[in-house]
Amino acid sequence: MVEKAEAIFKEFREHSIAEFFKKNRQMLGYAGKIRSLTTIVHEYVTNGLDACEEAGILPDITVKIKQLGHDHYEVYCEDNGPGIPKTHVGKVFAQMLAGTKFHRFIQQRGQQGIGATGCTLYAQITTGKPIHVITSTKNGKVYEVDIMIDVKRNKPVIMNEKEYDGDWHGTKVRGEFKEVTFNWSEYGPGEYIRRTAVANPHAKITFIAPDGRKITYNRAVSVVPERAKPSKPHPKGLTIDDLLEYAHHSKERTIRTFLVKTFDRMSNAKADEIEKLTSIDFKRKPDSLTWKDAEEIIDAIKKVKFLAPSTKELKPIGEKQIKKAILNVLEPQFHAVVTRPPSVYRGGVPFIVEAGVAYGGKAGRVVGDSVGAEIMRFANRAPLLFDAGADVITKVVNEVDWNRYGLKKVDTLPVSIIVNVVSTYIPYTSAGKQAIADIEEIHKEVKFALMEVGRQIGGHIRRERKKYEKQTKKMTLLKYVPEVAAAVAALTGDNKKELEMKLVKMIEKKYSGNGADEEEGEEQ
Ligand SMILES: Nc1ncnc2c1ncn2[C@@H]1O[C@H](COP(=O)(O)OP(=O)(O)OP(=O)(O)O)[C@@H](O)[C@H]1O
Ligand SMILES: [Mg+2]
């Protein structure tokens, strides 16, 4: 029997974004017990670092994970950021698609307005419990509250509100989660925090693990990174839909001023050029733009030449700072770093690639009793631990011929390969934000960066090898000194001790210094 449309459509319902993610929690990174725990730590730590950065505060972050039972943990995260105004706390932790970042073109770790609420949702669906938040904006008051989410309405449910006097700023969040587990693998929270320390040398991070181990990553630099500033979208990256949305929210009086004020590199002259290519009167109000008008404008934009997007708003970690972080956390034998010049993907989004290689010391990943290479991937300084196979960085690392740089069988060496992609919009492959899409321009930049650090590290390795060879030769020669001195003394009648001293001096002179001047040594 054929079912009537009316009967089928009795089932028609609307559902909220929170209901959607409740069913599709894997999209937010809640897949697998270890990954789920790391995701929670990631969401709270990135929010703390973003908040500090925006407020110009040197971050001091503490993460504590306590085991409460089998696959059952408490996560506590504290930051010394600016705090959250009382009126916004509910929405921050229990409303999906709410935040200060999504609508701005600014380089930050978070960008979607889902992370914190995702954690609340996961606590709620695995334990039925709210998350506990204490925050203060240094206004003399501390606000403490339990928060759950009304999943059907995607709205916060506030409970046990308290307000009392206090004089500090920051945010403390505590949540209880099941279907999570802790370990020290490269996918666990411990590794996540280690990598966060590598990319954030200005942060002090303390981690207290469920086994009681306390690890503190002290600041390697004590300057607050320059704040990333919001940038304007570049016309070449616009779609018709984007243009309409900006136009309909614009408060400008004419299409012309709307274009000039809203977009990067859009001068009056460019707006005139575009107007001439369309049949639209640019004195009209921006909210009168129709789909057809927007289509015409986008077509015209394609024909007009614009300067490349401005990149001054991007803030890479910087070579000096990466060096300090590498020395602080990895204590390698040698290392190399590079920050590439800014570039642009999809015609309109600026980005910068930074890379580093650390060799020896604590670099590389210990597996059992051997050490192997590790790839540390970062997006706007936030570590990416999962979905490595889908990530452009992993692909490029595998493409590079490391043999050329003296790193034969790189997989088996104590090497950390570090890549940070900085952008006002990181093109993630999914809402879980763990892999950067393989976009041609980004691919190319990552490759250049890795080749550059490869060349540098290759030089170090060659020098180091020569130094080692020189040292071995010296030791061998010194071994024969007494015998040679005795033989010469017997032949010439000279004093054996004096001869010995002369020979030692000669050898020391020839093989002193580092490997770089070996050739010179050979001539002597
Ligand atoms: N520790 C904090 N201190 C101050 N503000 C915070 C803190 N945590 C979150 N916020 C605010 O709450 C908003 C929502 O956070 P949430 O993690 O849900 O989204 P996001 O960071 O904007 O993006 P993403 O979903 O990519 O993480 C943030 O945009 C920020 O304004
Ligand atoms: Mg966030």
Question: How is the secondary structure organized here?
Answer:
Layout lengths: L4 H5 L7 H7 L9 H23 L4 E10 L2 E8 L6 H9 L20 H13 L3 E7 L3 E10 L4 E11 L3 E10 L10 H11 L4 E5 L5 E4 L22 H10 L5 H8 L5 H10 L13 H13 L15 H11 L4 E6 L3 E3 L3 E11 L5 E3 L2 E3 L1 E6 L2 E3 L7 H8 L15 E9 L16 H53 L3 H15 L7 H6 L1
Parallel strand pairs: 1-7, 14-16
Antiparallel strand pairs: 1-2, 2-6, 3-4, 3-6, 4-5, 7-8, 9-11, 10-11, 11-16, 12-13, 14-15
Helix pairs in contact: 3-5, 4-5, 6-11, 7-10, 8-9, 9-10, 12-13, 13-14
Bound molecules: adenosine-5'-triphosphate and magnesium ion (MG).
Which features does this protein show?
six-stranded mixed beta sheet; binds magnesium ion; alpha+beta; 524 residues; 39% helix; disordered C terminus; 15 helices; Heat Shock Protein 90; Ribosomal Protein S5, domain 2; eight-stranded mixed beta sheet; single chain; globular; Helicase, Ruva Protein, domain 3; binds adenosine-5'-triphosphate
Task: Describe the protein's architecture and organization.
The chain folds into four domains: 17-217, Histidine kinase-like ATPase, C-terminal domain (Heat Shock Protein 90); 235-303, Helicase, Ruva Protein, domain 3; 319-456, 2-Layer Sandwich (Ribosomal Protein S5, domain 2), CATH 3.30.230; 461-523. The chain has an eight-stranded mixed β-sheet. Mean pLDDT is 91; it is low at 515-524. The protein is 39% helix and 21% strand. The longest helix is centred in the last third of the chain and has 53 residues, at 440-492. The chain has 524 residues and is an alpha+beta fold. It has helices spanning 5-9, 17-23, 33-55, 86-94, 115-127, 189-199, 240-249, 255-262, 268-277, 291-303, 319-329, 392-399, 440-492, 496-510, 518-523, and strands at residues 60-69, 72-79, 131-137, 141-150, 155-165, 169-178, 204-208, 214-217, 334-339, 343-345, 349-359, 365-367, 370-372, 374-379, 382-384, 415-423. The protein binds adenosine-5'-triphosphate and magnesium ion (MG). Adenosine-5'-triphosphate binds at residues 43, 47-48, 51, 79, 81, 84, 92, 99-101, 110-117, 171.
